[in-house]
Design brief:
36% helix, 252 residues, 7 strands, alpha/beta, Spore Coat Polysaccharide Biosynthesis Protein SpsA, Chain A
Length: 252
């Protein structure tokens, strides 16, 4: 029996040196680990709060005990498999479809303020489109989805994932394969200090202003939550450096 459409949240275990490394160079490892946990928890709240079925796809596979302790087992926890990001996304879609999902979206964990309506628009679009994609400001994409019967694994093949033309290259592949694609509005993910500043500035008076991410930013940087360009590693950190590589505290 077919299940509802599902949302696959891609995330990494909160391990030093593995998450948001460019941001960590500006803010320090401890702050970035805290923020990353907040990003993930806010994303889960938005997806689950919208009533969407969710699968959590984590990396590395060996991190299951930490991921389970952190996020619990309410949503299926699926290890990522494959050599590069493209293979891991291919395999995640295949897993979702094999579990009976009639359509699926993959979304990353670095867009914590993506509004719930974007998920709704994406899943609604897959009723009469083959694929959906959301362009990110840096030339990549923050979301991609397919109807099961129109899934195209080639959309993830031969892509240089750090290149600025990921989005346009993917559109070309989809068009050449005859897929009807719905485009979502652009959104800015968070990789750098400038991205983080933009997130804080655009959410001063939105519903996201009460999120775990914004609360953590205000705790560190004051009422606006906006880090300035000189914040660096001298900003206030409330937790000492831990001895374990993985950090499974909830964000606070």
């Amino acid at each position: 029996m077919d299940l509802n459409p599902c949302v696959i949240l891609f995330l990494k275990a909160p391990e030093k040196g593995r998450v948001k490394t460019r941001l960590a160079a500006s803010l320090g490892e401890e702050m970035v680990l805290d923020l990353y946990r907040c990003f993930v928890e806010d994303s889960i709240q938005t997806i689950a709060g919208g009533g969407y079925d969710m699968l959590i796809s984590y990396d590395p596979p060996s991190a299951h005990p930490w991921i389970s302790k952190w996020l619990g087992e309410r949503h299926p926890l699926l290890p990522q498999s494959g050599g590069d990001l493209g293979e891991r996304m291919q395999n995640a879609f295949r897993t979702a479809f094999s579990r009976g999902c009639c359509a699926a979206l993959i979304v990353g964990s670095d867009i914590p303020d993506l509004p719930s309506r974007f998920y709704g628009e994406a899943l609604a679009a897959l009723r009469d489109h083959d694929a959906v994609i959301g362009p990110a400001h840096d030339g990549g994409y923050y979301l991609i989805g397919f109807r099961r019967e129109r899934f195209l694994p080639d959309a993830f093949a031969g892509i240089s994932w750090n290149a600025p033309e990921v989005f346009t290259r993917t559109l070309v592949i989809l068009a050449n394969a005859g897929r009807r694609v719905h485009l979502l509005p652009p959104w800015r993910d968070v990789d750098t200090l400038e991205d983080l500043r933009a997130l804080a500035l655009r959410n001063g008076d939105t519903s996201f202003s009460g999120s775990a991410t914004m609360i953590r930013l205000r705790k560190a940087y004051g009422p606006t939550g906006v880090p300035d360009h000189s914040s660096g590693k001298t900003m206030r950190e409330d937790r000492p450096d831990g001895s374990e590589n993985f950090s499974v505290r909830t964000c606070s």
